[in-house]
Amino acid sequence: MEGSEMIKPDLHKSETGVEYITVGDIRDLQQTDRTYLFHCTHARVALQFLTDSLFRFKLSRGKHALDLTHSRVIELAARDLQAEVAVSETEQAYELRTAALVVTVNKSPFALRVTDLHGNLISEDEANGYGWTKEHTIFTTKKAQDENFYGFGEKTGHLNKKGSLQSMWNTDIYAPHVPEIVELYQSIPFFISTKGTNVYGLFLDNPGKTEFDMTDTKRYKITCHSGELEYYFLSGASMKEIVSQYTFLTGRMPIPPKWAIGYHQSRYSYETDLEVRELAANFRAKEIPCDVIYLDIHYMDEYRVFTWHPTRFPQPDKLLADLRADGFRVVPIVDPGVKKDPKYLIYREGVTHEHFCKYLEGETYTGEVWPGVSAFPDFTNTQTQQWWGAKHEGFIKSGIEGIWNDMNEPAIFNETKTMDVNVMHGNDGDPKTHGELHNHYGLLMSKATYEGLKEQMDGKRPFVLTRAGYSGIQKYAAVWTGDNRSFWEHLQMSIPMILNMGLSGVAFAGADVGGFAHHSNGELLARWTQAGAFLPYFRNHSATRIARQEPWSYGETYEAVIKKYIEMRYVFLPHLYTLFREASVSGLPLVRPLVFEYPQDPKTHNLSDQFLLGDSILIAPITQPDIDYRAVYLPAGTWIDYHTGEVVEGGRAVVADAPLDVLPMYVKAGAIFATGNVVQHSGVQQDITFQVYAGNGSYEFYEDDAVTFAYENGAYNLLRLEQRVEGSTLTLSWTEAHSGYDSADQLTFTVHHEDGRTETHTVAKADGQLVLNR
Ligand code: GLC
């Protein structure tokens, strides 16, 4: 543990005296093919407009030529420079104008000022805000005292990151995650700034260590420990537009297989074939729905990846087939560390074909992890990605469709917790040190895994879960937030963490329900299951040598509540699936902080303990022990208590009744969403009922075969529904926006009227309309 020595006065020396070189003044502007290249006193800077409202900034220190190759995380579609730019020049500045933005580039000293077409200021650099010391490149921009910051991926603390310091360096943190810990497993150097109606986003594309210091009242400072300064500036009218642009730039998630959005059960570890069978049988006997069981490291032979333990799991194919017949998928863990053992084929192949990370001088880097001394694949090389991907063949033949990638920061049992920063990565012929590429390691391992699975799974959708990642991880994997603890504080913290991940492009995220380390208890597990049931990734996982955490571990009272909410997950599955599809096309997160939908309401700006599922279901989890009520903030509008049907006017806080079996939930009047009957796993076809909460509103319901990529060729349905209230009638109408998948030709609606009445109707899809009395 750290002592007071950590804060002794002479530890943090002043930076005065350190040589700081700035970009200086513009000497010349060169324009080639929509790239604006500014030759400055001490640097070159390129500006490129990818769209009217999205530009790239790249700096090269000194006189070096600027390398304008995009990094691997930028989507191909985004690389085309589409925007028309009009350039003009005054004595003081150049002006670059698109159909959405005006970027004024000050000549002396070089600095940017971004406004909209009406001259409203969006962002303004500090004078001499671009510079560097021997160690760091630094960028400072002005900010307002009341500016809000969101995003930054997987971070501790509250929703709004104003006044905070964030650091990007993927780190395996087993110690309790507290606000002071600013580096966790994922690094997403992207944020959204909002102030009044002004909103913009900034993506710093740098996989080395970077820091964002928002603590100053007048400016924020971004520091890069390696690499050249390169960022993308995203402007738009709303947070939604920024997230949509950010995911245009870095990619959107594919639609997951439906089973991956059901309930998942994990433990470090279910250690034997028998234990796994008993677990599965228990779920079915107790009729607690479950789609997935995880195998943590004990299934392997001395933790050698891609092996099975000969006595613990003597017949994996048989086990997997039996579980599959009972509706379970099995997801095994795969870590990057390959045991150093010349008798082990994967290690031998890796050495022979030069797949492992090495020092410049040629020696293979090794570090200690679960299997002992291990080598680490160099995922920066496409060939190594392909080699690793192909290694999943055995799993796939055994019927496995999902893989859990862990320890891929990479985590190593040493003082720095990771690989030596001087190890080299081949990087497909552009060698760089580990220090420069560290935050790409987990991303590229997940890419290798996802692509390897996809290639071999005959048109079925793979599922990958990862601990580490970087911008773009959403294209390959769901993310869980690592080793949390069974603390109420960690349940609290998981909510803003997952919400900010959604704002950072990672729509498919969740925390270990019940808490990983430390002993859980019935009440905590029940409350955590309630919250988890409405968060995108829903897995109960717990560590070795601590209290068991299966739904039935704490007696019947708790089991009943836990079962009820796992069942609720399945009731909401058709809606969740629809929202996942929306995330795949628009990049918008499934779960949203209230500020995302109600930005004009200042009460939402740092609301960290409640969230919206989609745009109209408000979830307010209980995150403290021994309470049976809580304050819930309802934004303006009419809301209906999901449990009681009571109509509540928003624009104020209400006190919700929340005995142990109640998770406070409110539905916005006008909402429509699809629900299903309770099933034991997602493979069972559900009967769909549209819940219609009287008012004006619309919904797009999505369905397909749930497991293959056939939807990419049109095998899906999209049903557009709309409700209008007028005088004494409620008119519900629908049209098939796309029809490519065979499904029920009748539709069932449960209409929740303003006076508390509900009525249910089943009608022919072909009818297209239903008119009811209010
Ligand atoms: C790491 C993971 C955890 C896993 C354990 C053993 O701590 O974060 O989820 O159970 O390793 O594999």
TrEMBL record:
Residues 587-672 form the Glycosyl hydrolase family 31 C-terminal domain. Keywords: Glycosidase, Hydrolase. Gene3D superfamilies: Glycosidases, glycosyl hydrolase (family 31), Golgi alpha-mannosidase II. Transmembrane segments: none annotated. GO terms for biological process: carbohydrate metabolic process. Residues 45-213 form the Glycoside hydrolase family 31 N-terminal domain. Belongs to the glycosyl hydrolase 31 family. This is Alpha-glucosidase. It comes from Tumebacillus permanentifrigoris.
